[in-house]
């Protein structure tokens, strides 16, 4: 590095006395900061010429201007404080002159001070709230990892699809298996414990966009880009369970996972597995991509959502169209049914979601909700009387079915939200994001955890969907993404709620 004057002794001297040089700089700023001490006719740049500094003159001028502005702000605050003090003193004197006595003999500790400080206490509360909100993200990143390592453990990775996975679901009957729907025109069934592919459904001619299982029978419902929805039966036999891998990670792992190439997957695809190619029933009344489908309570009817801006209600036994649910202005993105009542909610790119009521067989009513400013990517029912909606506007809203005029909680995120899910027992919301994150919140909007995402685990591309499984006194969360894999996580709910 070149040294001023070309002398090595000069650099050695500067290295021996760094503290003195910094002190001289701070003193020079203080001397030239105030405009009152500047002699008339002398510019600030002229005052800096004789001072030793490595900074360019223009940069020093900018710094001095900034320090001058800071000084003027503090001066204004000081003057304001003096005026407030004088006001309080005059009020106290007036109160004493009127003959009013204050308990304790000190007028500054009585009711007048309480009234005078009421407005300042409100301002103080606002400042505290703003401070907490602005620092919550920073504080959450400093949580102790030793206590949170047991919150989220990697259960298994399910690798075998040749394209992105749009949706996944867990069977409601025994044997309990995981189902995935992929853009590679297939749906796969997996052993949750071993990660082995058990069965492939290859009856669609387009991307499989959704998969849902019958509530009591071994039947699956898939929606596809070929403008149809299929109902098909399956029979699987679970392999012998294997011991779980000893892999755990904190739920607030911030490491990036972009080191691997997009589309690269670990392991090989599934070996030859039984394949179902012919559906039991084909539902084909849509004029566009069927993006989602679900079973109504009881499993005798299904509802489908399509890019043709309509949702259709079908009889399972006859495959006949019962109702065409029209009204959305743009393509539908998702549909969901209530677990115990004949209610359907559909979401759309028109920034709304609609609640359809089929509890009365003679009529069906519809309610429109406009709580978002961008595409509503999904809206789902909870076991209670709530609806949770997620959107590309980076918010998730919790609604009460008894009063849907305004949300009871709003969750704001840093990325678009895809197909969300809510656990039945603990009512925990799992949010999959475009930025590859998966976050967990409670129904009041309090963040509980974030699933690990590092070079060793987690998704490497957009996370499309989440699904819960709370069988056998354990809680598992499954996620899938456009990196062609699904991942199972073991969630320690008691520890998660204790961290909250």
Short description:
The protein has helices at residues 8-16, 18-33, 44-48, 57-97, 111-116, 118-140, 145-148, 493-499, and strands spanning 152-159, 165-170, 177-182, 187-191, 197-201, 208-213, 219-224, 229-233, 248-249, 275-276, 281-283, 290-295, 301-306, 310-315, 321-326, 332-337, 343-348, 353-357, 365-369, 376-381, 386-391, 395-400, 409-412, 421-422, 429-432, 438-441, 447-450, 463-469, 476-481, 485-491. With 500 residues, the chain is of the alpha+beta class.
Molecular structure report:
There is one protein chain. It is built from eight helices and 30 strands. It is of the alpha+beta class and 500 residues long. The strands form seven sheets. The chain has a five-stranded antiparallel sheet with strand order 9-1-30-29-28, with no helix packed on it. Strands 2-3-4-5-10 form a five-stranded mixed sheet, with no helix packed on it. A hairpin with a 4-residue loop joins strand 7 (219-224) and strand 8 (229-233).
């Amino acid at each position: 590095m070149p040294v001023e004057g070309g002398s090595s002794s000069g650099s050695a001297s500067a290295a021996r006395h760094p503290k003195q040089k910094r002190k001289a700089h701070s003193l020079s700023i203080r001397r030239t900061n105030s405009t009152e001490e500047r002699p008339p006719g002398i510019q600030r740049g002229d005052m800096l010429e004789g001072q030793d500094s490595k900074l360019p003159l223009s940069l020093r001028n900018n710094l001095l201007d900034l320090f001058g502005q800071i000084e003027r702000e503090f001066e204004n605050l000081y003057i304001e404080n003096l005026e407030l003090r004088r006001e309080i003193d005059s009020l106290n004197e007036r109160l004493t002159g009127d003959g009013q006595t204050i308990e304790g003999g000190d007028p500054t500790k009585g009711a007048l001070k309480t009234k005078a400080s009421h407005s300042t206490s409100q301002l103080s509360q606002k400042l505290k709230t703003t401070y907490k909100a602005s620092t919550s993200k920073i504080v959450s990143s400093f949580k102790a990892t030793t206590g949170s390592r047991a919150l989220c453990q990697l259960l298994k990775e399910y690798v075998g699809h040749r394209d992105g996975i749009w949706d996944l679901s867990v069977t409601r009957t025994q044997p309990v298996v995981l189902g995935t729907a992929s853009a590679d025109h297939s749906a796969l069934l997996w052993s949750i414990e071993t990660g082995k592919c058990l069965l492939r459904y290859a009856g669609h001619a387009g991307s499989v966009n959704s998969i849902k299982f019958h509530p009591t029978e071994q039947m699956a419902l898939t929606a596809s880009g070929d403008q149809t929805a299929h109902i098909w039966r399956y029979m699987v036999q679970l392999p012998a369970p294997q011991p779980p891998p000893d892999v755990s990670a904190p739920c607030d792992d911030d490491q990036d996972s972009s080191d691997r190439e997009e589309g690269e997957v670990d392991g090989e695809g599934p070996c030859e597995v039984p394949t179902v190619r012919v559906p039991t029933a084909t539902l084909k009344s849509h004029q566009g991509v069927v993006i989602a489908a679900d079973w109504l309570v009881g499993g005798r009817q299904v509802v489908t959502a399509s890019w043709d801006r309509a949702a259709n209600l079908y009889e399972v036994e006859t495959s006949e169209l019962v109702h065409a649910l029209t009204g959305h202005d743009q393509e539908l993105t998702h549909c969901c049914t209530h677990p115990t009542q004949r209610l359907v909610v559909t979401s759309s790119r028109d920034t709304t979601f609609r609640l359809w009521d089929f509890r009365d067989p003679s009529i069906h009513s519809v309610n429109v909700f406009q709580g978002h400013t961008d595409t509503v990517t999904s809206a789902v029912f909870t076991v209670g009387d709530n609806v949770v909606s997620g959107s590309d506007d980076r918010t998730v809203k919790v609604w009460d079915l008894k009063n849907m005029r305004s949300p009871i909680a709003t969750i704001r995120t840093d990325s678009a939200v895809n197909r969300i899910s809510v656990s039945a027992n603990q009512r925990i919301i799992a949010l999959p994001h475009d930025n590859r994150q998966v976050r967990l919140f409670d129904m009041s909007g309090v963040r509980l955890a974030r699933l690990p995402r590092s070079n060793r685990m987690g998704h490497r591309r957009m996370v499309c969907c989440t699904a819960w499984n709370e069988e056998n006194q354990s809680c598992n969360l499954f996620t899938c993404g456009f990196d062609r894999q699904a991942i199972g996580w073991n969630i320690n709910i008691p520890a998660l709620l204790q961290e909250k």
